[in-house]
Structure formats: structure tokens, C-alpha cells
Hints:
The chain has about 220 residues and is of the alpha/beta class.
Amino acid sequence: MKIPKHLGIILDGNRRWAKEKGLAVWEGHRRGVETTKKAINWAQKKGIKTLTLFVFSTENWKRKKKEIDFLMKLAGSAINNSLKEIDKNRIRVRIIGEKTKLPKSLREQIAYIQELTKKNKAMVLNLALSYGGRAEIVEAVKNLIKKKVPPEKIDEKAINENLWTSDVDLIIRTGKEQRLSNFLLWQSAYSELYFCKKYWPEINEKDLDNALLAFSRRKRRYGR
């Protein structure tokens, strides 16, 4: 079976899953973290070389402060609890997004795990945290300006080299929605899209297998 080198997943539906189960929103987010840990292992086992998970968007900052505070603490706890296993499995962790908006304590945890795992080669795990595709493109343009790149030298290659991550082969969206929601807008130009009719907390390995099987059956012609 043909496996995508770079897989992106939009983790969606934690709150709606909890609501339908009659549970608190917090429980939906906690269950989402559990699924995330499993998904990282599934992806590595299947030979994915780069996995980008859309964890928290720039738009999510519009949520209530109480929920945001909980999510930031949950992210920090998840990073701490996964450190040893991630490093043991030789996974390199990168946090992509507007990190300056994150709490100081979380930024410190991010810096630590990135430094700890920077030489790992088995798989790259991008956690898109405070991430927006439009913000990423804006940042790439700003970097080119800072580098004083002349306008005639700015092309697709120049933009690519200043983005936070590379082109993605397959994007899976959970949560019963069918949109990209500002995820990897530049890198998804030729991505295959797969929409799963389940909320993120209820995703299992078979669901990932189904998405990978669908990907392997598609013809990627890139306009040819």
C-alpha cells in the first residue's frame, strides 16, 4: 500500500463528542489527547515520515478564557507525559505556529522538547499550536523582507523555504466537517483530502487504515 510521506490531520470534534455523550467539554479534550497519543504511534508504525497535527488554531483564541486556560495546561501536561516515549521512539518534535501567544511556561516546555528531540530521525512530529495557514504565509513574506530578498527573486521556492513545514500528501479531517479551516493552505495545494465521519476522540487505527487505503488508490497527476 502506498503510504504518504507527509500526513496532516485536523483534530476536530472533541467538544461535540463530549456534548453528545452528556459529558463536560473538558472530558472531550482529555479524550482527544488520548487519541492523539495513539495516532502518533499508529502513524509511525505505518511508516509516515512527517506527521502534522492541527491541535489549536489562531481562531481558537476566540474561545472563552476558561477553556483556553484548560487547553494550554492540557497541552503542557501532554508534552511532559509523552517526553520519554517520544524520545525513545526517536521522534523529532516541532511546534509550528505563533508561539509568542502561548503562555511562558508552555513556551519553555516547547523549547525543551524541541531541543531534546532535535537529532531524532525516525519521524518528524509537527504540532500545529496557535497555528493558522494565512499567518504562516504572512510570516514567510515578512522573513523574505527581513532577508532583503529582491522582489524578482521571490518565487514559489523562496516561499517554500520560509514556511514552517513542507508540502503535505494527505490531509485527514475528522469531526464530520469538510473544509481545511486555515490548515496548511500553501502546502495543501496538491494534497489528497479525506473526510472522516467521526469525532476525533472516537477515531481508531482502522479509521487511519481506511484513509491510507483511499490515498493509495488515488492517482496524483499534478496537472499532467
